[in-house]
Amino acid sequence: MRFKNLLISTISLKIFLALTVLLFFQAVFLFWQLSTKIEKNIVYESAKDINTLLISEQQTLEYLAKKNDFLQIQKNISLLAVKNELNWAFLVDNEQRIIAATQLANINKNLSSVIPATVYPQLLEKSQLARESYKGLVLSSANKMNLYAVIPIKLGRLSEKSIRTDKTGYLYIDYNLGKQKKYYNTLLQELFIPELIFLVVTVVLLAWFFHTSISKRLHSLNLAVRDISQLKYQHYINVRGRDEISELSKSFNQMIDNIHEHHQQLLKREQDLAITLNSIGDAVIVTNKNGEVQRMNPVAEQLTGWSEAEAFNLSVKEVFPIVNASTREKIQNPVDKVIANGETVYLSNHTTLIDKFGREYQIADSAAPIRRPDGGIEGMVLVFNDVTEQYQLRQAASNSEKKYQTLAKVAPVGIYHTDKEGNCLYVNEKWCEITGMETINALGEGWIKGLHQDDRESIFLAWNKMVNDNIPFALEYRFQDAGKTHWVYGQASAEYNDGHIIGYVGTITDITDRKKIEYALRHSQKMDALGKLTGGIAHDYNNMLGVILGYAEMMITGLDEKSEFKKYTYEILHAGERGAKLTKKLLSFSRKQASNTEVININNVLLDEQHMLEKTLTAHIELILDLTSDIWLVSLAESELEDAIVNMSINAMHAMAGKGKLIIQTRNETLNEIDAERLQLKAGEYVLLSVSDTGKGMDESVSDKIFEPFFTTKGELGTGLGLSQVYGFVERSQGEITVYSEVGLGTRLTLYFPRCYKVDGESIDKTDSKDQEGLTGSETILVVDDEKSLMILTSKIFQQQGYRVFSAESGKEALGILEREEVDLIFSDVVMPEMDGFQLAAIVQKQYPAIKIQLASGFSDERHIPIKDDTLYTNLLEKPYHSISLLKRIRELLDQM
């Protein structure tokens, strides 16, 4: 009914009849004209249809190419063959190679080989124009019977399994117009002319009607839709009326306004986002859920070397390659973990970014997921910044710290560092070695506890002068470690930062040996002065005794036997004789050269004195002689040697309350330069005579004075001349005497006498019976000694000879080393806390029977003799041992393996 109203209101019946009559007379002309128009219309409409088909196929194929769906692409091309108007359709790459076709046999052929040669150049030209405009183009054949069409297709980055990695290809179509032309020509020929005229008139009138009433307005709508698709919002539909098309036009105009407004809002938001992103000081990369770059800010472009356009849709792994700065190994890109698990990932401080041009940047970064409102992951945002300068500063500081630690570790002096209050912050290993303190005990104020009580006041005074008056600290002082004294020379100065004192750094040097040498020199000078004094006193005293004894003898001869005065005179004579013996001792001490020296064998002297010594020591003291069979000869005064042996034995007896042992040993010893310098002797060959007891021992204050005349610990029972006489005898014999004593364990006196090389003018072979060469080795030795300095010295002696050395300060630590290392020989001290050397040896012999064992000690008594095996006791190496003797003993044991 509405359509009828539209018809009546648009055109009248008269006009319709008039047009019919008019067209009747023009039928023939119109017939011809209509035929021509139909042909043109067929071409035009077919071209439009082809163009629509091209646009549709372009969108479909590009969508399928993005999904890498090659099968569906081929299926779509094959479906085009269903259209009767199409002769063929080809999808080609940018090298004109057919990759999909309506005829499968043509796939992989070149386009030029399957289409007419007359058409191919024109199609190539149209292809270039189509690529530039990115639209479809149609070409008519010369006979107007075919239409050839081409449109560019974005193939994308298809996988190797489908097509190939070309970015742009083309879709070619051959559209046949012959069928349509034939149809319309046949239709015109079959219709009667009046019917044709009437039809034509009716069609024209209706076409005019629909053109003015419907088509024109629909065309306006079509134009508006096309403009909207191209983001153009200036086109408005101006349709008047009150019908549905008018209402639709009004609604469409309102929709255009709404879309335009919303698009403007989106543009503003996009601009704001771009401004914000580009203003961020850190580099930002945004990816989609496939890890492909979608956005980059300028900082990211600068650091990666990629522009945003170049990086678009590329994998972030390609744009953002990272390696470990230390190992140079590739670091897993965070994109996989972030998108797969939705975690925020932070990379390590050692991450290096390598940009497009090979430049490297040290970066700190994080990667976080981009989530949709429903919680799904849409992509990833990667934020990173250039920390190369900070990294280089950290590396420089770290390298500087490592160098400092290395220098402090290998420095030959002890190094310490304190804060400005004097609290210890750091000590190196050498400091601990020199002082005998552990690092943990030295920190804070702990180092003060290690200072010798007598030196603390002078140390604090010098330290305060440095703090208050800026006078550098320089002082000789002592550390006390378990009764052992370590002399050091300490230096320190202030450490500044921006002109302010932040602490103090200092060093200590071990001068214990130097102090011992100085003490020995002073002691020698003192003994020399005492010798001169006692010699002078003895000389005058002898004169007085001569007078006293002479007059006493005269009085005895002149007095009656029964006279009480004669008895008194005998007492005077007896006292004089005692005084003469004392004088003899004083004169013996004061002599610088031994009298009546002769070449002797010390073993023979000891064997001759053995019976007398056993009687003197009584049955409570066991005398043990441990004599080397091939002892070298020495040049000594035999009588003075006998007196020295007796004096030392009697002193040892007095030190042993009750039962005990007196061990006298002899051995040959070759002193190298180091050992000889320590003893203040010349390097060479010596005979050692040692006297050890198991008595109460002495502390340092007593052992320093035992060789001084008139010093005694026996009260009125001793004169204090016994050991001073021994000292004088050894000195006159060009030898040296040492004392080793520990409270509660006993004392050992060791006498060194130079070997005598001539007897009655004949030379004696200076070469030891065992060659000194061949003392090197490559075996593994474990050194065990609770005295750290001696343990380190012994380890160095072995290492210099090529041995592989481990060291331990206790038996427990030694057993721990044996659990993880293979050892050929253990060299251990006997006297150690918790577990002594014999106890350690018993465990080792049971668990590691192949390991050789050599023990050393300053003392040996029944408390340390092993129950099952006394060979360790028999072969005990006595302290202090010399390097040649030590190496010979170790080599002999290892050669038995």
Can you put this structure into words, describing what you see?
With 897 residues, the protein is α+β, with helices and mostly antiparallel strands. It has 6 domains: 27-190, 2-Layer Sandwich (Beta-Lactamase); 280-393, 2-Layer Sandwich (Beta-Lactamase), CATH 3.30.450.20; 411-509, PAS domain (Beta-Lactamase, 2-Layer Sandwich); 516-590; 598-759, Histidine kinase-like ATPase, C-terminal domain (Heat Shock Protein 90), CATH 3.30.565.10; 780-895, Response regulator (Rossmann fold). Strands 6, 7, 8, 9, 10, 11 and 12 form a 7-stranded antiparallel sheet that branches. It has 29 helices and 31 strands. The termini are far apart. β23 and β24 (746-754) form a beta hairpin. 48% of the residues lie in helices and 22% in strands.
Report helical residue fraction. 40-55%
Uncertain stretches:
1-17, 159-163, 715-721, 760-772
The beta-strand count equals 31
Beta content comes to 15-25%
Q: How many domains make up the 3D coordinates?
A: 6
**Overall mean pLDDT:** 76
CATH class of the largest domain: Alpha Beta
Rg over C-alpha atoms, rounded to the nearest angstrom:
59 Å
Distance between the termini: 127 Å
Instruction: Tell me the major beta sheet.
Output: 7 strands, antiparallel
Architecture per CATH nomenclature, i.e. the level-2 architecture of the largest domain? 2-Layer Sandwich
What's the helix count?
29
